[in-house]
Design brief:
Layout (H helix, E strand, L loop, with lengths): L1 E9 L19 H8 L11 E4 L1 H17 L12 H7 E2 L4 E6 L7 E6 L9 E6 L6 E8 L6 H14 L16 E8 L1
Antiparallel strand pairs: 1-7, 1-8, 2-4, 3-7, 5-6
Helix pairs in contact: 2-4
C-alpha cells in the first residue's frame, strides 16, 4: 500500500451543501429558517474547521477516473479502463480541512434555487450557502491497488481539480465551484 499526500489550492470558490440537521421552529418561515441555519451547510470537524468530506474526495477521484476513461484518454491495454481499480483501490481515511474555521464564516452566497429540488416544478426560492474564496487542503489518499501507476494516479488527481472539483455547483454538474490545482503530490 502506498500513501499519497496531495496539497491543493482552490482556483474557484468552494461551497459546501450539507443537509440541515436543525428543525424548523414553530411559526418560523422557510426564509427565517434558511437565514438562521445556512451555516449548517458546511461540513466541520471536531475542531470546528470546515472540511471536504472524505467521501466527497474519494467520489471525485473515482468520477474523474471514469470521465477520463470514457473518452479513451486513460486506458490500460485495449479497451480496459482504470475506473474499477480506482473504485476498489483507493481509500480516504479522513476529511480534509480547507483552512477556514466555521466561526469565521461571513455572508453566504444567495442563489435562486428550486424550492423542492425539482427543476420542472417551477417553484423557486432564495437559498443561502457558505462560500469560501481562499481555500486549500492537504488530501491523504491510500492507494491500496499496487497496479495503479504513479503517472496515472497523478493525472487523475490533477484532472479532478480541473474537471470535477468539490462541493455545491462543482464542475462535475456543469458549475464552476470547487476547482483546484495540485501544488504538491508525493507518494510513499
Amino acid at each position: 500500500m502506498r500513501v499519497a499526500t496531495i496539497k491543493i489550492r482552490g482556483i474557484t470558490p468552494y461551497s459546501p451543501s450539507k443537509a440541515f440537521t436543525s428543525e424548523k421552529k414553530d411559526k418560523e418561515s422557510p426564509e427565517q429558517f434558511d437565514i438562521r441555519c445556512w451555516r449548517e451547510h458546511a461540513h466541520v470537524n471536531s475542531k470546528n474547521e470546515v472540511v471536504i468530506p472524505s467521501v466527497a474526495i474519494g467520489k471525485a477521484i473515482v468520477d474523474t477516473a471514469a470521465f477520463l476513461g470514457k473518452g479513451g484518454e486513460l486506458q490500460k491495454k485495449g479497451s480496459a479502463k482504470w475506473t474499477e481499480n480506482f473504485i476498489r483501490g483507493i481509500a480516504i481515511a479522513q476529511s480534509a480541512p480547507i483552512g477556514c474555521n466555521a466561526d469565521t464564516m461571513k455572508e453566504p452566497e444567495m442563489i435562486y434555487a428550486h424550492a423542492d429540488g425539482n427543476p420542472k416544478s417551477g417553484k423557486r426560492v432564495w437559498r443561502r450557502f457558505p462560500i469560501f474564496h481562499d481555500w486549500g487542503a492537504t488530501l491523504v489518499v491510500h492507494i491500496l491497488d499496487d497496479s495503479i501507476p504513479v503517472d496515472v494516479f497523478k493525472r487523475v488527481v490533477e484532472s479532478c481539480g480541473l474537471f470535477n472539483g468539490f462541493g455545491r455547483y462543482s464542475a462535475r454538474v456543469g458549475g464552476h465551484n470547487g476547482r483546484f490545482i495540485v501544488e504538491e503530490l508525493s507518494i510513499k
